[in-house]
Amino acid sequence: MEESHTIWIEKYRPSRLTDIVGQDEIVERLSSYVKSGNLPHLLFTGSAGVGKTTAAVTLAKEFYKDSFQMNFREMNASDERGIDVVRNQIKQFARTTPLGDAMFKILFLDEADALTTDAQAALRRTMETYARTCRFILSCNYSSKIIDPIQSRCAIYRFKPLGAEAVKEEVRRIAGKEGLSITPGAMDAIVYIAQGDMRKAINALQGGAIISATIDEKMIYAITSTARPDEINELLGLSLAGDFDAAESLLNQLLHERGIAPNELINQCYRALVKRDMNRSLKVQLIDHIGETDFRLSEGANSDIQLEALIARFVLTAQKSQ
């Protein structure tokens, strides 16, 4: 595939540990494993797009250099999550002898929290039996879904959401290589949309680059179907002022004319509400309403009805607090 048609997430994936931004402490500790030539089983946990997969792959590349392809295997547990994949594919790879000068092979199991409990129990035994010939790196979003016997066998690394400066640094680097011009407002919009997820940030940047080499704030919000922060604040302000009709009109505009997803709108309302300077008791009640609406949507309730009901609750709660 020509490089110009490559998805930027892959095109600009760091090739060395030191190229990973925003996770300096973790990078330093992983680099020490490369220097020592030894490696324990590892468990990477954290939200999406913070560098877990990149860290695993670059760690293996620095370990093996030219023999990387022969001694490293990446699997996604969400593709095959049953016990058979552990008994067959994983066990078969773990039991074979490392090739070249390698002392052990590395198996990277992405989205390990998708494995069933029985599969994890079988994996625990495999990790124990073949520890001499194979090291395991497990990656997951929720470490609580990994059974304790596996967690106790791993060095656990918790990847934090990337900070605004880390996201901006990487976006500037990619924009420079692609010859793009980004306005300050667009940069802030990318940071707002990403929420610490570099994958989201790069996707937003590439989406804007397809339209124009000069990327502005309006373009970023449009291509990502995201409401601007001032629109969310206006929606909250109208609701808390008791103007249900105006709030409902703005809500319908955001949902139906702008095509913003209901769950995304709820998430943005929550983020704006948490930062809003207001009566603490009122804030607590409003966040409770958001949580209830979010749960109802996850259970399959009608999104239009639930979001209008949320606005109605905001109006009634604000009136009672006066």
Q: How would you characterize the largest beta sheet?
A: 5 strands, parallel
Multimer state: single chain
Could you give the distance between the termini? 62 Å
Gyration radius, rounded? 23 Å
How many β strands by DSSP?
7
Query: What is the fourth-level CATH superfamily of the largest domain?
Result: P-loop containing nucleotide triphosphate hydrolases
CATH third-tier fold name of the largest domain: Rossmann fold
| Strand line-up of the largest beta sheet | 2-3-4-1-5
Supply the CATH class of the largest domain.
Alpha Beta
Order of helices and strands: HHEHHEHEHEHEHEHHEHHHHHH
Low-pLDDT residue spans: none
Give the overall average pLDDT.
91
Q: Given the C-alpha coordinates, what overall shape results?
A: globular
Structural class assignment = alpha/beta
Note the total helix count: 16
Helix content: 55-70%
Strand fraction:
5-15%
CATH architecture annotation name of the largest domain: 3-Layer(aba) Sandwich
Number of domains: 3
Descriptive notes:
By secondary structure, the protein is α/β, with parallel strands linked by helices. The protein folds into three domains: about 5-160, 3-Layer(aba) Sandwich (Rossmann fold); about 165-225, Helicase, Ruva Protein, domain 3 (Orthogonal Bundle), CATH 1.10.8.60; about 230-320, Zinc Finger, Delta Prime, domain 3 (Up-down Bundle), CATH 1.20.272.10. About 60% of the residues lie in helices and about 10% in strands. It has 16 helices and seven strands. It has helices at about 10, 25-35, 50-65, 70, 85-95, 115-130, 150, 165-180, 185-195, 200-210, 215-225, 230-240, 245-255, 260-275, 280-300, 305-320; strands at about 40-45, 70-75, 105-110, 135-140, 155-160, 180, 215. The longest helix is centred in the last third of the chain and has 19 residues, at about 280-300. It is globular. The mean pLDDT is about 90.
